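Question:
Write out your own:
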Amino acid sequence: MPAIRTQLRSRKGAIDGHRTMTSRASIVGEEMQDLADCKMHYPLSENERKTFKTRDGKRVTLHQWAVYDFTRTIPCGRVTTYKDICVALGQGSPRSVGSALRNNPFAPFVPCHRIIASNLYIGGFLGEWGTGANAKGGQKNTGVQCNRKMEMLAKEGVMFSLEGYIEDESLLWIGRG
């Protein structure tokens, strides 16, 4: 598996003088998907967060900010569960965490692909749940998005069985203080 190098920089942006977080990830010896250069505005101050709106014009709730902030701390090549996030935050439910991540306006800077179900199943991605015959959600759910999530995680060294369960449980990251 190729080595993955990540950098996180904070700098003053040209847009309104806001601080911009820049995440840069690269794989040595193999091409990585569009995660290679992620430049976007990620509000850090309380005032910026109060006025921030998504592309759809929606405000981000305090719970969503908490989920996004926590998710940003998950190391590359590791995963955590929806339940472990709400336990670490001391608020919400696994479903509320999943809902926040489904509406993540900061992907891939907020790496929502690193969250799996408590039973160590691949879980959901971009509104779909599961892969192939295990896909849930009616005809709209093809399992394609969860397969994409597994591919992204595989590039980080996290592998799943054909049934969609993590192969190496030691890659489970519990980010509690």
